[in-house]
């Protein structure tokens, strides 16, 4: 009787797809760019329900995560905010073929009400502002946009990733920050966004790949399929991301 009950209980998990019963594995580890924090957590909820697994995230700078993966850090999926970071993992033989699944653009975020009256990049010259460090994808994009606009104002600090940059504005430590449009959407109740004309000419592309060191490659492939599905793209779009 106990044997029969065990078989009955396992059938629904097997039917969920992924490695002949992915739920038995219990956990999928996704290393992802900090700017994907909110939308990936939203994407995880239905995925966990369907596959009977827990999706564990490690969010941070794309460059740092890619270097960790290249050094053999455990994980199943890597999602970066630029091609250069993904190339680090690919060149090390740690990432399988990557797919581009979303795009983003830079914007200026200011505390709600915009107390410093910032209306453009030119106004940063008289403000306390922050951006991502040069080695982070958001920092590279910021450099390109600032150079294109001829802005030479220096930030008061360079942050590890886009979420750390946003936090400086949320905490009141900065009058403004250069972040992705999606971060402004995520923090819409606490910040205002100032659009940067021409920012869409320097878009950020997001790539994802399953990892060679993955213990659950089929489940990792299921995650990529979900993110790039029509429903997944709708969730990304609602969070402010553009299509590839």
Tag the structure with descriptive keywords.
five-stranded mixed beta sheet; D-Maltodextrin-Binding Protein, domain 2; 244 residues; globular; 10 strands; disordered N terminus; 9 helices; 2 domains; alpha/beta
What can you see in these coordinates?
The chain is α/β, with parallel strands linked by helices. The protein folds into two domains: 2-103 and 204-238, Periplasmic binding protein-like II (D-Maltodextrin-Binding Protein, domain 2), CATH 3.40.190.10; 106-201, Periplasmic binding protein-like II (D-Maltodextrin-Binding Protein, domain 2, 3-Layer(aba) Sandwich), CATH 3.40.190.10. The protein contains nine helices and ten strands. It has helices at residues 2-15, 37-51, 62-70, 83-91, 137-148, 162-170, 181-186, 217-227, 230-238, and strands at residues 27-33, 54-60, 77-80, 99-104, 106-111, 129-132, 157-159, 176-180, 191-194, 204-210. Strand 6 (129-132), helix 5 and strand 7 (157-159) form a beta-alpha-beta unit. The chain is globular.
């Amino acid at each position: 009787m106990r044997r029969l009950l065990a078989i009955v209980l396992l059938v629904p998990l097997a039917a969920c797809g992924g490695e002949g019963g992915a739920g038995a594995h219990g956990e999928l580890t996704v290393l992802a760019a900090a700017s994907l924090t909110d939308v990936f957590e939203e994407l995880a909820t239905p995925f966990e329900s369907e596959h009977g697994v827990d999706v564990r995230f490690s969010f941070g700078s794309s460059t740092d995560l890619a270097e960790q993966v290249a050094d053999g850090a455990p994980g199943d999926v890597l999602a970066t905010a630029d091609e250069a970071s993904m190339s680090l993992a690919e060149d090390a033989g740690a990432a399988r073929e990557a797919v581009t699944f979303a795009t983003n653009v830079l914007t200026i975020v200011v505390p709600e009400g915009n107390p410093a009256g910032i209306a453009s990049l030119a106004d940063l010259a008289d403000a306390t502002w922050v951006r991502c460090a040069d080695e982070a994808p958001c920092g590279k994009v910021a450099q390109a946009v600032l150079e294109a606009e001829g802005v030479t104002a220096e930030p008061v600090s360079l942050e590890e990733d886009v979420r750390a940059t946003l936090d400086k504005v949320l905490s009141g430590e900065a009058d403004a920050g250069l972040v992705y449009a999606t971060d402004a959407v995520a923090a819409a109740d606490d910040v205002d966004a100032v659009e940067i004309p021409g920012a869409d000419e320097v878009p950020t592309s997001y790539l994802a790949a399953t990892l060679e060191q993955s213990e659950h490659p089929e489940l990792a492939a299921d995650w990529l399929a979900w993110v790039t599905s029509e429903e997944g793209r709708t969730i990304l779009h609602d969070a402010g991301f553009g299509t590839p």
